[in-house]
Design brief:
349 residues; alpha/beta; DNA Methylphosphotriester Repair Domain; Arc Repressor Mutant, subunit A; 4-stranded mixed sheet
């Protein structure tokens, strides 16, 4: 991806997108603008991932368009969203602007994979979450980006996390959650005062169910925010993706059934850059006939990457289901193997 972006290879347009931290925009690989420094880039599999992470589309390369252009009325709508600072356009607003709401809905769904109203929500929520992550108050960020009441932002939060924040922040009995960026898309992370309790992919289908089970296990809600464990996790993940870290030290809070906790504890013993089979995990925890249960425990792991369920494969070496998608599982395995190979080559020299 780095090579394709730096060379402006148009054949990769639509395959991945690049967020520029210093400007807050995201681009297609062929963008003609000056290339940002590597440390200011992050890569996304889809435009939706970039929007959720708080980036806005580049006006030069127009990454939301298959051919780099959009009708004037669409460009006007997107520009209005970016300038509004949270203004919500209703169907009545669209009609007043001379745009048929049904036309806008069809166009955005066909070209961007979401309705116009969903696009607006994605941008507002993504930017608001970014501000909360950077220390802005929950209510202030919500009001600024078009949520009419405290419950409005909380409702949007519920759709992502599966449980309302409540008022637990006042007495400290809660887990705080944020979204951090990575080369494989935005990550939803959460931590209690004792350690990290969640690291999930923002586009995972079972995310709401995972958070619902987690809040039940923890006995407390999840609210937007950051703490020292999430800051440490973000730093260690950056080192991991850069190939500079092979083991995580951030404390974890991973409540589950006795069987799940045995599986998760064993996963953390699998060496970096190596894989094991579901069968070998079952045997290692003293349940040789529980291979399918091991697979389910893998799927129920709420702390991806750090509890490396991606290192478990089929006996023949083939990949099997992964909550973040098989492409991410392959990416993580390739990253670790590539790092080990580079280190081995360095030692030989």
């Amino acid at each position: 991806m780095k090579r394709a972006f730096e060379s402006g290879d148009a054949s990769y347009d639509g395959i991945f997108f690049v967020g520029v931290r210093s400007t807050g925009i995201f681009c297609r690989p062929s963008c003609p603008a000056r290339k940002p420094l590597a440390r200011n880039r992050e890569y996304f599999a889809t435009a939706n991932d970039a929007l959720v992470a708080g980036y806005r589309p580049c006006k030069r390369c127009r990454p939301l368009e298959t051919d780099g252009t959009a009708p004037d009325w669409v460009q006007d709508l997107i520009g209005r969203i970016e300038r509004s600072g949270g203004e919500r356009m209703t169907d009545s607003d669209l009609r007043a602007s001379g745009v048929d709401p049904a036309r806008a809905r069809r166009y955005f769904r066909a070209h961007y994979g979401m309705t116009f109203q969903s696009y607006q929500r994605m941008r507002r929520l993504g930017v608001a979450f970014e501000e909360v992550r950077n220390g802005e108050g929950l209510l202030e960020a919500g009001y600024r980006h078009g949520y009419d009441s405290p419950s409005g932002f909380r409702d949007a939060f519920v759709k992502l996390f599966g449980k309302p924040p409540g008022r637990a922040r006042d007495n400290g009995r809660c887990a705080v959650a944020s979204m951090i960026t990575s080369p494989i898309g935005p990550l939803v992370v959460a931590a209690t005062a004792d350690g990290v309790c969640m690291l999930e992919f923002a586009d995972r289908r079972r995310l709401a169910g995972q958070t619902a089970r987690l809040t039940k296990r923890l006995g407390c809600p999840i609210v937007p925010g950051m703490n020292r464990h999430l800051e440490r996790l973000e730093s260690e993940l950056a080192e991991y993706f850069a190939g500079d870290r092979t083991a995580f030290t951030v404390p974890l809070v991973a409540p589950g059934t006795e069987f799940q906790e045995k599986v998760w504890a064993y996963l953390q013993q699998i060496p970096y850059g190596q894989t094991v089979s579901y069968e070998s995990v079952a045997e290692a925890i003293g349940r040789p006939s529980a291979q399918r249960a091991v697979g389910r425990a893998n799927g129920d792991n709420r702390i991806a990457i750090v509890i490396p369920c991606h290192r478990v494969v089929q006996k023949d070496g083939k990949l099997r289901g992964y909550g973040g998608g098989l492409w991410r599982k392959q990416y993580l395995l390739d990253l670790e193997r590539g790092t080990m190979q580079q280190r081995a080559a360095t030692q030989v020299q």
